[in-house]
# Entry
Amino acid sequence: MELGLFLYVIFIVFLFIIKSVPIFILIGVVFLLIFVLHPKKPFRAGFVAISIVIFTTFIGNVLFKDGRILVSILGFDIAEDGFNDAIINASRIFSLIVSAKLVFFNKKEQEIVNVLRRISSSLRLNKILPMEDFFDIMVLTFSSLPLIKEKIVLDYKTATDESAHLNIMQRANVMIKVAINPLCTVFEESNDYLSNGRDS
# Structure
């Protein structure tokens, strides 16, 4: 797994060095095929969320940019620079997501943390940064994510069942509230855990 992380870091650097639109189109297509054609269904999980992120990135980059106008759609001018930036950034984010899935797919949380501990130790980061506290928080976060998701879903169902006639904005407000409460609890318990660890 150390090799996978090493190659992933090199790939990240590569993605932020190159600026060629055709290369990013090729990379995006390759990773799209990997994502869609991967034989394991859990690997393809999160398609809707990833699509929303990529679409938002593309739209945020393609609009309101100066330069040579390529086309006007519904009153919005699409500039060449904006279109190129949209392709590069959308492909970059999508490639990072899929490549991270390739590296970490089917890896246990503790295994990931242990690998990061070994890398941190070999780079002697512990001497300049509080890495042990960071890894303790990572372990707590990984361990609590399933419980957090279960509690958020349960609280959301309870809140919406009690008020069946909520509109979309009201439901979104409920989701924000039920998501914040368990996260705040996790942060408070993490601080208590780390404080007790330092005192002991």
